[in-house]
Amino acid sequence: MPSERWKISVSGIVQGVGFRPFVYRLALARGLKGFVANTPDGVALEVQGQTAQLEDFLVALREEAPPLAQVGEISSAPIPLCHDGEFTLRHSTASGPVSTLISPDVAVCEDCLAEFFSPADRRFRYPFINCTNCGPRYTIVERIPYDRPHTTMRGFAMCGPCQREYDDPANRRFHAQPNCCPDCGPQLSLVEADGQQVAVREEVLGEVLRRLEAGEIVAVKGVGGFHLAVDAANSQAVQRLRQRKGREAKPLAVMVPDLAMARKVCRLEALEEQALVSQERPIVLAAKNVGHGLADEIAPGYDQFGLMLPYAPLHQLLLQGSARVLVMTSANRSEEPICIENDEAVQRLNGIADCFLLHDRGIHLPCDDSVVALQAGMIRQVRRSRGFAPKPIGLAEAGAMVLGVGAELKNTVCLLKEKQAFCSQHIGDLKNLEAYRVFQQSLSQLAALFEITPTLIVHDLHPQYLSSRWAQEQTVPTLAVQHHHAHLAACLAENRQDGPAIGIILDGTGYGPDQTIWGGEVLLGDACGYQRFSSLEALPLPGGDAAVQAPWRTALSYLHAAYGDNLPDLPFLMGHECGPILAMVEKGVNSPLTSSCGRLFDAVAAMSGGRQIIQYEAQAAIELMQMAGGRLGKEGFPCEVYEENAMLKISVRSLIRAVANAVQSGMAQSEISRKFHAGLVAVFTRVAEEARRRENINTVALSGGVFQNRLLLEGMAASLGSSGFQVLFHKELPCNDACISLGQAVIGREAFKKR
Ligand code: ZN
Ligand code: ZN
Ligand code: FE
């Protein structure tokens, strides 16, 4: 048999994930000679052996790659034979910076779990067990290159046995930076609310399980931050958690020990089960089962639970008590970032947690649990954070290094480099100093990890957002981008499409260049620019943000817009003091105009007997959607469209009149919801068809937080699809404002080309 020698290069996430040792083992098993090394672009190798073996090796390189690796392109070419006697693992070959892609944090792997549960293993029940295939990454890295002294593990010197694993290319822990064991690694401690330490190491768990069983609230330090844990079957405990956290009704996430328990609690589709057990271990939103056995206070008035499986070894221990399911909610005060430091947690969670389960492995960057949901046939992101960030999103083209600093709510930041977009984890609402601090930290962290120096910073058109103000303070050139244009560009970029497209962008709030609040928009355009083709009518929002909290105010204002002073006699008006609000609207005092789709949902919910005051964002809209029971009306409420100032206006007033008539005729709320959703689907389809007729564009991009409404999304996709449109939607990024930073950045790149 003839021998050949091939030069092979592999790109993708292939560094810091055990790829070289994997190649080494693969080559040894086939008796191949040669070497493997890291290069600035990935991994390079030369292998020599019989042709059939080399071909087989090439297939295995992709198909058997270690779990954390993401193999991009593999190229191979024959080169002259050499006389190396063995296969070797070389350290970095090249000069220049090594573009290591830092992996996200990954759930404990099966091999580690087997050791964890094996009494004979030296890491039996050790909560910090990890290997090259699993464990913390993004949250412990302080700077590059990704080596132990550059992580929060730097204070722990490896013991002899750990060091031998670390140095052995054939070992699963070869170059596993967080490698450690009970003799040399981090340890648990239990601290009372007053900061007194009551237990350390092995004693901690028994005590914590007893306290959970007794209904106590335990703050647990995890991978990306602290959780607050309580027994999910204990109503009183869950109520107490809500009271102390100041979180009245917003659903709380629960952690179940295994898939069997998940199936008991929720009705799960196959894709949802796959997402639950995936190495990213996100929270999966899934339909509650009848007889789920958990406290009703976990997700009152909500037809889903947010479920997750244990991802840190410590969680495995926590779920072994008699409390088989735990509420595990991010430890913070409302809307603040998740706590990460021990002292900080004990201080900030004072009055919330009864005790603190701490450890001494530092968390460098906070990272909440990610949230995903099955919508329109695919698992999609609701909150992209731990497990996903900072995995890059692939772009169609390379271009300048540009930074997008995101919007105000659900802020993320995004850096573009070559053909990749690095989106940060979920940072939160940029309204408090804590969040602003994490915003700045995440920015500098991403820029440092991926060696990106932006030549342009793109921010929202709203001058007062903290992110806009930060951008203005930098010395780098800046560009302001309209919020909904950014939504459209993000959806195109994620789908690797150039456009132009008809962007149907439905959300709560975005600052318009005409200084009204936009949010029910049909834009035509791409990353180069846009035209506002159509929008919902702009109507007054009495009290601005105050109306967001009180849907009845919006309902009253919209009714006034539709009927003038002769308001129809609707039951919901009885409970409110309408005079002052009507006076505000009539005089135009503190009543900004808005074309928001979120507010339209609020108004319809309040008018039809739904929620008058909300306890968390979008509550009224979510409850209205649930009323429909998953079905659109056969016919929607009629909604007029008219031409004004070279734009198509969608008449909110005609829709409001139709809803008012339905309420007065005694139509059931469920039917009102179905007809309202169907009406929206019909009118936006009509507007898209008109856009196609005039501009000859056949692609529709859907974006904006309102599309987290699965009934609307699925209805819209079906209707547009049957009208022959190509329909684009988000998958890797949420459709809400978390995608804004990507949209800003790609718009910035286009603008940069023209400079
Ligand atoms: Zn492992
Ligand atoms: Zn050790
Ligand atoms: Fe938005």
Question: Which small compounds were modeled alongside the protein?
Answer: zinc ion, fe (iii) ion
Percentage of β-strand residues: 15-25%
Counted up, domains total 4
Helical percent range?
25-40%
Quick one: CATH superfamily of the largest domain?
A: ATPase, nucleotide binding domain
The low-pLDDT segments are: 93-98
Number of strands: 32
Biggest sheet statistics: 12 strands, mixed
Our count of helices gives: 22
Distance between the termini: 59 Å
The outline comes out as: globular
What's the short story on this structure?
By secondary structure, the chain is an alpha/beta fold. The chain has 22 helices and 32 strands. Helix 13 crosses helix 22 (740-753) and helix 17 crosses helix 18.
Structure description:
The protein is of the alpha/beta class and about 750 residues long. The chain has 4 domains: about 5-90, Alpha-Beta Plaits (2-Layer Sandwich), CATH 3.30.70.100; about 190-360, DHBP synthase; about 390-495 and about 735-755, Nucleotidyltransferase, domain 5 (2-Layer Sandwich), CATH 3.30.420; about 535-730, Nucleotidyltransferase, domain 5. The protein is built from 22 helices and 32 strands. Strands 6, 7, 8, 9, 10, 11, 12, 13, 14, 15, 16 and 17 form a 12-stranded mixed sheet that branches. Strand 31, helix 21 and strand 32 (about 725-730) form a beta-alpha-beta unit. Helix 17 runs parallel beside helix 19 (about 650-665) and helix 19 (about 650-665) runs antiparallel to helix 20. The longest helix has 27 residues, at about 670-695. The termini are far apart. The relative contact order is 0.09. Residues about 95-100 have low confidence and may be disordered. Bound molecules: zinc ion (ZN) (2 copies) and fe (iii) ion. One zinc ion binds near residues 162, 180 and 181.
